[in-house]
Q: What sequence folds into this?
């Protein structure tokens, strides 16, 4: 039987200040700086949580609520690409209007206290045409992505135009822009020149002149006024990353659709491999200078390990249609944090739709859908909230609540993990982050593209600390559900009470009415227990929890998670601490926010948006909304869009139940053929709803949705329901309707060209294209104003 042990006695992390490295201040005296391990704000450890959201891929009238959603999800930094070809598609004609209005987007970030990192290119990738390079650069008498002065003259003009948009919004000017990414994957990745595709399929260079080019781009950016404390660059794959001037950023994805790119001509990949991303490693350790997906050209401990492209989803490519597993995202987050990452970044965190071009109608990468860039992100193309959003939110709360301690903890592995086989899902995957005897045990039971199962470890996991051995769980078998993860505390300080160990995951703490409350969630499939030294605590109130006093001097508490009743403990010095345990399901509706001048906990399965002095509850397909609040509101709120049905006490919380005013969205469906339909709407069809999601079940290759002759959305079929948000197209839909077309899957297809007069024709042995069920699901918004 395998014994799982980890020696955590040596948990002192070597952390040194880096004066003069990526630092700056604002007019209020706030300051950004770095150590070799983490970012600091005002001299204190700061855990950065970045979410990618491309302003140009979203309707500008909807930006604000979506940014609020990101903030509510625990994001504190917004990263956004500035695609050159979207702003200067026609040479010399810059467009910063509408959804291209970078300045307005950043001002909204500032309004909601979100810091910003602008990714200024010139090459971006981002599954955009030419990787963001304008078509007019093709065939010029110079090589792009090089130090050729003729190319750099165009880059300078781009940077000057970007600078003009962001002046007044830079950190040193009191604005939210704290960082600038230079280029992207320089020396590692390229894109096809779209105008050659289908003829010569020419790819641009991956980049010339090495780190000198990166330094030159940064110099130009600073010369034209793009001055930020933080400069970053991507470092994976051997990309050029001058770490002494830019913070190297890393990442990882569970799904790699690019491996099937032009499969028929070049590739030999038949089956997606299980990626090694979900095996714990140490990415900030000089003794391990290289590991999977991490081969820095610098000494690892000289600079922080930080990420900008942890897979918050993935976009389908034509040759790889997948059903993206949303639980892969929190598993990835847990892996990266356990590896020593104190600045995490999701690509994408919020999906979107590609805008139309002025000369080239479709500005997408040619392997991806023409319009949709939903990316299976935590927040979807039309504001849909996914399971990954809820699960990562809990992690973000924890990292930020305990950042002062967490940022200083050291990664400890149970041994050499470099040879672990990702297909081996029977061997336990675990690691520790610890400092001065206390720590977090990370367990991962998720693996992409492999068969997984419920975890059951009879002998548990033993952590060896400086003065004792700690077994998880205290007795019996360690259990964790299939595809789940856990982050379990040991010797954890709860305001003066030491939690010896627990099989629950910390979420956050809250101080209310002179008392302190700690909130935990039970990992899926794992029985919950809290362990304390008996002489150190007294149980004042156990609610419905069971507890046991053991002969070895330990007190064990077994909570009833769904009761929502706090367990109250008193330390030997008289400190009172309350513990609240949520089930896995309950925790997905857990929110922490400042609400009308007081920090509160809210439990609701609606999407919670708090901003501009209002509380908004988004509900999909339901005529009721419930929220439980602690501490309670001082007065009954005024509601818009619904009415209060009841207010009752429910354990620690006060529960409010509202009825929402609903409206049936009527439409006419004209099935023109098996593969074609016209959907018609009345002028006022979408009045009274926040969004209307058209849901289409179909069989075929690609789904296309047109208003007149304009393609507004498309979908690579993978067997899942295709969703389109209709609200923003309301007036046009009332006038023209929506045309749906399903292109067929063609099997046994041949092209006949055996003719003297170019009479080409295609014949297929089988053609599959069928529109099945078409329905609409309404998204409602209940607005609460302070009573």
A:
């Amino acid at each position: 039987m395998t014994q799982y042990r980890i020696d955590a006695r040596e948990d002192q992390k070597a952390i040194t200040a880096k004066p003069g490295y990526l630092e700056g201040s604002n007019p209020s005296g706030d300051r950004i700086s770095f150590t070799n391990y983490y970012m600091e704000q005002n001299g204190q450890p700061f855990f950065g949580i970045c979410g990618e959201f491309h302003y140009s891929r979203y309707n500008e009238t909807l930006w604000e609520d979506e940014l609020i959603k990101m903030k509510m999800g625990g994001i504190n930094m917004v990263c956004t690409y500035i695609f050159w070809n979207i702003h200067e598609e026609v040479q010399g004609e810059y467009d910063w209007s509408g959804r291209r209005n970078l300045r307005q987007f950043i001002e909204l970030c500032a309004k909601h206290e979100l810091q910003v990192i602008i990714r200024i290119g010139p090459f971006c990738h981002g599954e955009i045409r030419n990787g963001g390079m304008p078509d007019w650069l093709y065939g010029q008498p110079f090589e792009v992505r090089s130090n050729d002065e003729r190319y750099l003259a165009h880059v300078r003009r781009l940077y000057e135009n970007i600078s003009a948009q962001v002046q007044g919004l830079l950190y040193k000017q009191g604005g939210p822009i704290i960082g600038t990414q230079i280029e992207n994957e320089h020396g590692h990745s390229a894109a096809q020149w779209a105008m050659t595709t289908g003829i010569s399929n020419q790819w641009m260079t991956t980049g010339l002149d090495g780190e000198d080019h990166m330094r030159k781009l940064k110099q130009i950016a600073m010369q034209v006024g793009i001055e930020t404390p933080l400069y970053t660059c991507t470092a994976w794959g051997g990309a050029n990353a001058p770490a002494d001037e830019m913070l190297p950023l890393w990442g990882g994805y569970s799904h790699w659709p690019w491996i099937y790119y032009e499969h028929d001509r070049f590739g030999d990949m038949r089956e997606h491999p299980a990626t090694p991303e979900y095996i714990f490693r140490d990415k900030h350790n000089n003794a391990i200078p290289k590991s999977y997906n991490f081969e820095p050209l610098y000494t690892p401990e000289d600079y922080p390990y930080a990420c900008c492209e942890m897979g918050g989803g993935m976009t389908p490519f034509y040759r790889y249609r997948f059903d993206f597993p949303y639980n892969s995202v929190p598993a990835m987050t847990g892996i990266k944090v356990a590896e020593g990452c104190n600045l995490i970044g999701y690509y994408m965190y919020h999906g979107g739709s590609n805008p139309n071009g002025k000369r080239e109608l479709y500005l997408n990468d040619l392997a991806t859908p023409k319009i949709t860039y939903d990316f299976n992100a935590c927040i979807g193309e039309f504001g849909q909230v996914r399971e990954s959003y809820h699960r990562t939110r809990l992690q973000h709360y924890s990292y930020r609540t305990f950042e002062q301690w967490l940022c200083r903890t050291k990664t400890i592995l149970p041994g050499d993990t470099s040879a672990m086989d990702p297909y081996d899902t029977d061997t336990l995957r675990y690691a520790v982050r610890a400092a001065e005897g206390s720590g977090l045990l990370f367990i991962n039971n998720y693996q992409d593209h492999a068969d997984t199962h419920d975890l059951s470890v009879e002998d548990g996991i033993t952590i060896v600390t400086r003065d004792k051995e700690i077994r998880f769980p205290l007795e019996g078998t360690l259990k964790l559900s299939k595809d789940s993860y856990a982050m379990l505390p040991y010797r954890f300080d709860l305001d003066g009470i030491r939690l010896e160990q627990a099989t629950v995951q910390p979420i956050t703490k809250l101080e209310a009415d002179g008392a302190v409350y700690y909130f935990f969630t039970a990992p899926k499939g794992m029985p919950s227990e809290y362990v304390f030294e008996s002489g150190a605590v007294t149980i004042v109130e156990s609610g419905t929890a069971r507890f046991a006093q053991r002969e070895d001097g330990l007190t064990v508490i077994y909570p009833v998670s769904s009761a929502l009743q706090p367990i109250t403990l008193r330390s030997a010095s008289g400190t009172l601490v309350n513990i609240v345990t949520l089930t896995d399901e309950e925790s997905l509706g857990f929110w922490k926010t400042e609400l009308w001048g007081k920090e509160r906990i809210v439990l609701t399965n609606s999407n919670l948006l708090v901003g501009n002095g209002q509380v908004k509850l988004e509900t999909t397909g339901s005529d009721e909304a419930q929220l439980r609040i602690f501490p309670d509101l001082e007065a009954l709120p005024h509601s818009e869009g619904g009415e209060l049905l009841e207010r009752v006490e429910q354990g620690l919380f006060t529960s409010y139940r509202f009825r929402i005013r609903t409206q049936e969205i009527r439409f006419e469906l004209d099935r023109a053929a098996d593969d074609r339909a016209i959907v018609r709407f009345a002028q006022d069809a979408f009045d009274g709803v926040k969004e209307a999601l058209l849901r289409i079940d179909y069989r075929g290759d690609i789904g296309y949705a047109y208003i007149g002759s304009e393609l507004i959305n498309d979908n690579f079929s993978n067997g899942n329901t295709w969703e389109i948000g209709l609200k923003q197209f309301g007036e046009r839909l009332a006038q023209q309707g929506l045309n749906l077309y399903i292109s067929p899957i063609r099997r046994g297809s041949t092209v006949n060209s055996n003719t003297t007069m170019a009479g080409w024709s295609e014949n297929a042995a089988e053609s599959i294209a069928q529109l099945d069920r078409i329905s609409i699901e309404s998204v409602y918004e209940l607005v609460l104003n302070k009573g």
